[in-house]
Amino acid sequence: MFTERDLPEDVSGVRASHATGALVLDCEADFETLPPAQAEELGLLVDALDPTSYPEEWLPPEVPTQLRRYVGTEFTVGMPGDGGVTWTRQTDPPIVFVKARTEGSPEDFLDFLVAEALVEVALDRPEHFLGFFEGRYRDLAAATRLSPADTYQLAVALYDASLGLDTREVFRGWDEEFPRLHDAWVDAGERLQPRLSDLPREVATGRTSFPAAAELACAGVKHGLDVPTPFGALDTEAYRDHGADYAVTWARKTFEKLRE
Q1: Which Pfam families is this protein grouped with (predicted)?
Q2: Could you report the per-residue pLDDT of 110-162, keeping only the tens digit for each?
Q3: Contact 69, 49 (CB under 8 A)
């Protein structure tokens, strides 16, 4: 199920700089919640395994089934929206998982995703948006009045932007030390840019839902791109400083304007 991944020199350099000792594992299958047998297999590769759980009180009454399962004691790594490369500090040492769904991805971009995960796992940040919002997730749902699935998608995007505010300067600094990874980060941003300028019109005409637009815009924040109103307000020191409180206030004000 799990095999230690051979890392190219630049990705090994990122690990040495940010997450010394972290394991990077290739996975034979896709998974989120690990069955007991696979969790036991994983436990043989690490010194300790301590699954995280969260209070039920943090959840609004209606949430996707996977999120309700996530707050329990089952060992879960990655959730819908987290992509094929995920990380966890529920183990000692921490682990970056490269899941089977990444097969066929461009090599440079996949190596960047692994390097990005190594940078993120070294931060003192939750590995899922629920650990970021905590009880404010209920407030986010109340502020937007979106469906449970759309609220989930918006929360993923908002936390993605928050992480990006902490990581993008690291990626910018790789232009000389790790130029291949830096170029992959830049290329991913350039592919996003054409979509961003039309986002307000797409949302206004119903061609793109607000949560989907937020997903694109918040990815733009991670890449240091110019993002349109109202998402530009997330690319601020205020968001970096005030976190979930800021995100909920932004959502409430934004949806009040959308309802006018």
Answers
A1: DUF7089
A2: 999 999 999 999 998 999 999 999 999 999 999 999 999 999 999 999 999 99
A3: no
